[in-house]
Write a structure and sequence with these properties.
mainly alpha; three-stranded antiparallel β-sheet; three-stranded parallel β-sheet; 11 helices; binds S-adenosylmethionine
Length: 347
């Protein structure tokens, strides 16, 4: 059970601490915000409409918000706070902001996963003021922290626990977002609507660089069905050598939850690799290993659970794989040498 807040000794049972009546848009609209201490010592918030009818009564401890209040009062409150900013006393303002936050948080239960990720992103933006790419990286990192603390990582734990090397760098921010239950609501929503929502945000925020375009879901599903077929009875490794945020592996797992699959992914970009780790930890139904490396420089036979690099996957601080590289690659982003490539193949 949550610990009740100690009452502020300044206030007494039944005291109306703040109360304000204002006009909005010249219309005689009265919004009252009052806060008092009930007999159990809780801070109680009430809000009345112009007829004096109670539209909201809630407290810090329960966070309960009645359904009708969500519909009617949020709009009023938001406008109220925006328009009356200049006139409001600090204490009233913070009361109303607190109230608005309670309403917002109570709605997270019904919010779709992508929107919840944006909510987390907004909290990061509001606190850290970095660029969009860095904010997305931090979003992934905070989710990774929550995942390590709250989820079963056994399918991704290889030679060491998945996310090995991850540290909690943004402790205050993490605690703040966690106190809003945003991570938890995201993971619950994600499991109801499983998909690579981190990748979707990456695309929508226009963070995609050259060669990083992700495959649309319908195409991913079709390709998975075409390559794996309907009934999978034989043990198989699904390999995505350019795994990105992991959508092929995720869908292979979700579409065939009971099939005897193992999943193997390679990604060269560190940010996408880490997002893939989060996605896999939250969604994969099969054992998996994701490696951060250049797949063009790895032999195909190094893929799969019997390979030497399988156990090096899924680590936040990824190990150096270059000892396993066979040669400099015949393909660079600006040139491709058919001669070098053919020589490599024939050796
Ligand atoms: C076009 S995206 C596709 C991602 C994912 N497979 C999908 O279909 O949505 C290609 C991905 O491969 C990665 N990549 C490019 N060259 C690579 C290489 N040599 N080794 C590993 N990954 C590479 C890019 O960073 C990018 O994330």
């Amino acid at each position: 059970m949550k610990k009740r807040k100690q009452p502020n000794p300044k206030f007494h049972v039944g005291d109306k601490v703040h109360c304000l009546t204002i006009d909005l848009y010249g219309r005689k609209l009265t919004v009252k915000s009052s806060r008092y201490i009930d007999f159990l010592g809780c801070h109680v918030y009430t809000l009345e409409d112009e007829t004096g009818q109670l539209v909201y009564r809630g407290n810090h401890v329960s966070n309960e918000v009645p359904e009708h209040f969500l519909k009617s009062a949020e709009g009023i409150l938001e406008r109220y706070i925006r328009l009356q900013n200049l006139f409001l006393l600090g204490c009233i303002m913070s009361d109303l902001q607190q109230l608005l936050k309670v309403i917002k948080v109570s709605k997270y239960k019904e919010t779709p996963p992508k929107k919840l990720l944006y909510e987390i992103l907004h909290e990061i933006e509001a606190k850290l003021h970095y660029g969009t790419y860095r904010n997305w990286d931090i979003l992934v990192e905070l989710l990774a922290n929550w995942t390590v603390q709250n989820e079963d990582l056994s399918l991704g734990s290889l030679a060491c626990k998945a996310f090995n090397g991850l540290e909690l760098k943004y402790k205050d921010l993490y605690n703040h977002i966690n106190s809003l239950d945003l991570f938890k609501h995201y993971v619950v929503a994600l499991k109801q609507q499983p998909w690579d929502w981190l990748g979707e945000i990456f695309i929508e925020q226009e963070l995609v660089g050259p060669g990083q375009n992700m495959t649309p879901r319908a195409v991913v599903d079709l390709m998975i069905k075409m390559t794996l077929g309907e009934k999978i009875t034989k043990f198989q490794t699904v390999l995505d050598p350019c795994v990105g945020t992991g959508r092929f592996l995720i869908e292979a797992s979700l579409l065939n939850p009971d099939a005897p699959l193992v999943l193997f992914g390679i990604e060269i970009n560190l940010s996408l690799y880490r997002a893939c780790l989060v996605n896999m930890a939250l969604l994969s139904k099969h054992p998996y290993s994701i490696i951060c490396a250049d797949s063009l420089r790895l032999e195909p036979k190094l893929s799969g659970p019997t390979s030497k690099i399988w156990d090096l996957g899924n680590q936040w601080l990824h190990p150096d794989i270059s000892a396993f590289y066979w040669k400099p690659p015949p393909i660079w982003h600006d040139r491709f040498s058919l001669k070098a490539f053919t020589e490599l193949k024939t050796k």
